[in-house]
Write a structure and sequence with these properties.
The complex is a heterodimer of chains A (251) and B (212).
Chain A lengths: L5 E4 L26 H7 L4 E6 L5 H10 L3 E11 L7 H4 L3 E7 L5 H14 L7 E2 H6 L6 E5 L5 H7 L14 E4 L7 H15 L2 E8 L7 H12 L23
Parallel strand pairs in A: 1-2, 1-8, 2-3, 3-5, 6-7, 7-8
Antiparallel strand pairs in A: 3-4, 4-6
Chain B lengths: L11 E9 L11 E10 L2 E11 L8 H7 L3 H7 L1 E2 H14 L2 E4 L2 H15 L11 E3 H9 L11 H9 L10 H7 L12 H15 L6
Helix pairs in contact in B: 5-6, 5-8
Classes of the chains: A alpha/beta (251), B alpha/beta (212).
């Protein structure tokens, strides 16, 4: 597939966040959920990112991607807060999302430590970590710090009336830009591009995928509603208005 | 220097509202069975439309939703018209308007209108700068969230407010009508045409309370 966007998959290890599996090439039946490995083969995707909400899928991913000779980088999406020790009503919803991408296998141990810190020490309704703690385990040789398009500090500052000030003194972050036909995509794109220009950061076009085809959106949404304990006729999930988080729309 | 809406007397507004099968935000799972619109030109209502819409699949309004919206299947069968014949008029009305106004439109009606535009291969993005969501303005008044007309982007500000919640703060249309001393028959609520006429009254009250 000829595409200028970085393909980003999320697997079912991100509970409620994807209906794609990491089963080995050819191991899924037609009646079963689609495997990211089979999708990569079908769409000739030779290199992709797998970014999950936690580290659990890395073993299966390594086995399946390696046996299919597909290059991939594994990453985790974490919730970043100002101070992970502060656990009160004020800090409950005060977090933004960041992706930590493994550049080489040696980083695995530190990635586990970051993930554990967020899940144990910082946990307050959800795993959370602050930049000060990430910094303790950070190595620019082992990781890339990626700011996702959605739910980043920029997103939250614009569309959630937050005021995060982020100091990247330990890394040079990379910003992702996406377009899934959501009503705020163009506004957010402009803000990200401006921010990168002002701070001399790089941004890349990317495309997040949580299901294979547009028609699979209903299955994805059903899964999401189960996870959120809501109903399909009243999902009550902000901005669940696009069926373009799929491989079909990767172009 | 930008001028406040309250002082711009020659504006053309289209107020609109969908009644739908459910509260899902995708066309695949939720089709509008009714659209109502009114045109207001320079402060005067000049035209209105109220259509029941027929699609290429059966409308499936749940019992609960039918009760809330007053959906009557027999009436629907009698008067529903093919969506394809209605769409050009929607596009023409939205094109005519300086502003497209509704209650909770950014979080509900506009995403559905987007799907309708895409179905007809039309550019839905041109609707966005015209959108005014009265629920957002109401929320900003009640939660005391400022808007800087010179420096804030009106659409971004509204999008932020469209998902803003504060415990105990009610901004639904009936509450806003009540707060603003507008006669409002709760039994008629969710009749699309009735809703938007009330919505228009609420809007003209709100813009006198908020500097937008």
């Amino acid at each position: 597939m000829s595409c200028n966007k970085i393909p980003i998959f999320k697997s079912h290890y991100s509970i409620g966040g994807s209906i794609l599996t990491l089963k080995e090439e050819g191991a899924s039946k037609k009646t079963e959920p689609d495997s990211i490995i089979d999708i990569c083969k079908e769409y000739n995707i030779e290199h992709c990112l797998l970014i999950d909400n936690h580290i659990g899928g890395i073993l299966e991913a390594s086995r399946s991607f390696n046996s299919a000779n597909i290059n991939f980088n594994f990453g985790i999406q974490i919730n970043v807060c100002d101070d992970m020790q502060k656990k009160n009503n004020e800090t409950k919803n005060s977090y933004w999302k960041a992706n930590i991408i493994l550049k080489k296998p040696e980083g695995y141990k530190n990635l586990i430590k970051i993930s554990s810190k967020a899940s144990v020490d910082g946990f307050y309704y959800r795993p959370r970590i602050d930049l000060k703690t990430i910094k303790q385990y950070w190595s620019n040789e082992e990781f890339d710090f990626v700011v996702p398009f959605y739910d980043s500090f920029l997103f939250k500052n614009i569309f959630k009336l937050k005021s995060f000030f982020v100091d990247f003194d330990f890394c040079k972050p990379v910003f992702f830009i996406e377009d899934h036909d959501l009503i705020y995509d163009d506004i957010l794109r402009e803000k990200v591009v401006d921010y990168c220009k002002a701070n001399n950061y790089i941004n890349y076009e990317s495309h997040s995928m949580h299901y294979k085809l547009k028609k699979d959106f209903k299955a994805y949404l059903t899964n999401r509603c189960i996870s959120e304990k809501t109903k399909l006729n009243k999902p009550n999930i902000d901005w669940m208005t696009s069926n373009e988080f799929c491989v079909e729309c990767l172009r | 220097m930008k001028q406040l809406l309250r002082y711009r007397k020659n504006l053309r507004f289209v107020f609109f509202d969908f009644e739908t099968e459910s509260l899902n935000l995708s066309f695949e799972n939720n089709l509008p069975w009714q659209i109502a619109m009114i045109k207001i030109d320079s402060g005067q209502e000049v035209d209105s439309r109220d259509y029941y819409l027929k699609w290429d699949r059966k409308i499936n309004v749940s019992e609960g939703a039918a009760k809330v919206t007053g959906f009557d299947l027999e009436k629907y069968k009698k008067i529903a018209v093919d969506q394809a014949t209605v769409f050009p008029e929607i596009e023409e009305w939205f094109g005519w308007a300086d502003y497209i106004v509704g209650h909770n439109i950014l979080n509900f009606d506009i995403p559905l209108a987007k799907e309708w535009y895409k179905m007809h291969n039309k550019n839905w993005k041109k609707l966005l700068p015209k959108c005014i969501d009265t629920k957002c303005i109401a929320q900003s008044i009640k939660s005391k969230i400022p808007f800087d007309i010179e420096n804030d982007d009106f659409l971004s500000w509204q999008i932020a407010l469209s998902t803003y919640h504060e415990r105990g703060v009610k901004t639904n249309l009936s509450q806003m009508a009540k707060d603003n001393n507008i006669d409002f028959d709760p039994k008629k609520m969710h009749n699309a045409l009735f809703d938007i006429k009330t919505n228009a009254e609420v809007f003209f009250k709100l813009i006198n309370q908020k500097e937008v």
